[in-house]
Amino acid sequence: MRLLILSLSILSVLQSNGCLAQTHAQNWGLTTLFSIVRYQNTVCETTNGESGVCVLEQECNNRQGQTHQGCPSSALVCCVSKFTCGHSTNTNETVFVNPSYPRGENATDTCQVTIDKPANICQLRLDFQEFTLAQPDVNGLCTTDSFMVRTTVGERLPIICGENDGQHLYIDVGRGSANPVVLSIISNGIHISRTWKIKISMIPCNNQAMAPSGCLQYYRSPSDVIKSFNYGLEPNPAGGSRYLANLRYSTCIRLEENFCAIKWQPDSMGAFNFGIVKSKLNESIIPTEGGSGEECSGDDFVTIDQASPDGIGAGQDRFCGSRLMANDYLISRSKPFQIKVTTNMEHELNSKFLQNGFALRYVQLPCVY
Predict the structure, then answer these.
(1) What CATH number does the domain containing 334 carry?
(2) Same domain, 180 and 291
(3) What's the confidence (pLDDT) of residue 224?
(4) Which of 82, 91, 130, 154 shows a CA-CA span of 20 to 30 A to 51?
(5) In this predicted structure, what is the pLDDT of residue 242?
(6) d(CA 44, CA 259)
(7) Do 238 and 176 share a structural domain?
(8) In this structure, are 73 and 103 located in the same domain?
(9) Is residue 18 a part of any domain in this protein?
(10) Domain count of the chain?
(11) Which pTM value belongs to this model?
């Protein structure tokens, strides 16, 4: 009798939420109903690697999504919802794509979408699964193409262009439902193929997945690679530096349990080429060494608090040039773990020396170190 009452209670809740058709519900047992309650609205992955949300097939059709396998419950489908210019969304794990996706766009246009987030959502995470726009100009500015985020709360977000597959952003949206977010992609010129596929994840207030306040990016693993926007080994076709000018943002790393320090080093040879050492600002030769502290005060730099080759003592905080100091690696015990990026509007020398930015691998070190 108790199982019957529990089954009817679950059934009633699902039906009251519009989640369950009566004809299907009568054919499902208690185990199936439990699995629906447990896995509904959880993130899933399709067999071809796309992210979606586990929902009933009827709900996926209502969202005009594509149904796939990939959910723990056979009663649910992995629903992939894509939308494009001129549309809006209020559902989690929606994907914003260019109108001709997977083909590219080669026209002058303005593409905008609106995210109407529910009242209990405090952050959005944007994952650039695919992102190719025009390169920045010789001044490091996104004057041909640009990606912009407009929101009424939080800090001003950077304008981005170039190649940014695998990058991500966190957006603070505040509590309440009156704070829509607008994503805009502006393109100019017909000789460039542009493609984007941006996954939008909604993070509830007070959820452990939220990024700390002030963090544009947030990494949650013991080791990973962090890249500057538009990082790449190939020269900028526009003839300048690859990394972007006029940026100030922080990338944060979650401190893992029983880890007390963090090590930073280029992911490959030459993967740190960021800013000009102050003593070399008036020279015409390509700089080959790294600078720290005041040596980086005249141009662009990254900030890693109290970092040094051995992680002992006060260390330095600003780093620039073509190496991370003499040994090309740094250790810091300062917490929270983060790297701050600062670029100015003076990009002439950075473009002259074709600086490509950075791809830095971090590794958290255990407390026994």
Answers:
(1) 2.60.120.290
(2) no
(3) 98
(4) 154
(5) 94
(6) 30
(7) no
(8) no
(9) yes
(10) 3
(11) 0.86
Q: Is residue 193 included in any domain, yes or no? A: yes
Dihedral over Cα of 98, 104, 107, 108: its sign: positive
Same domain as 251, residue 167? no
- Domain of 9 in residue numbering reads as 2-79
Give the C-alpha separation, 261 to 337, whole Å: 8
pLDDT in tens, the chain (369 residues): 444 444 444 445 454 444 444 445 546 666 677 778 887 888 888 888 887 888 888 888 887 788 888 888 888 899 888 999 999 999 888 999 999 999 999 989 999 999 998 889 999 999 999 999 999 999 999 999 999 999 987 678 999 999 999 999 999 998 876 789 999 999 998 788 999 999 999 999 999 999 999 999 999 999 999 999 999 988 888 778 999 999 999 999 999 999 999 999 999 999 999 998 877 666 655 566 888 999 898 899 999 999 999 988 888 999 999 999 888 999 999 999 999 999 999 888 888 888 999 999 999 999 975
Domain's final residue, options 79, 103, 131: 79
Length of the chain: 369
CA distance 200 to 129: 10
- The interaxial angle of helices 2-16 and 30-39, nearest 10 deg, is 40
Comparing CA positions, the residue from 217, 201, 200, 192 lying closest to residue 84 is 200
Q: Residue type at 36?
A: I
pLDDT at 43: 83
Residue keyed to tokens 């300062």: 334
DSSP characters for 215-235? Answer: -SEEE-SSEEEEE-TT--SSP
Q: SS3 for 293?
A: helix
> Do 186 and 125 have their domain in common?
yes
Cα angle for residues 152, 157, 163 (degrees, 5° grid): 140
Which 8-state DSSP code applies to residue 354? T
Helix (H) or strand (E) holding 14: helix 2-16
Alpha-carbon distance of 224 to 204, in angstroms, equals 25
Query: Is 212 part of a structural domain of the chain?
Result: no
211 domain residue, yes or no? no
Same domain, 12 and 145: no
pLDDT value at position 1?
45
CA distances in angstroms from 206 to 38, 121, 229, 254, listed in the order given: 21, 9, 29, 16
Q: Which residue, 153, 175, 204, sits at the end of a domain?
A: 204
Regarding whether 318 and 257 lie in a shared domain, the answer is yes
Query: Could you give the CA distance from residue 195 to residue 96 in angstroms, rounded to a whole number?
Result: 11
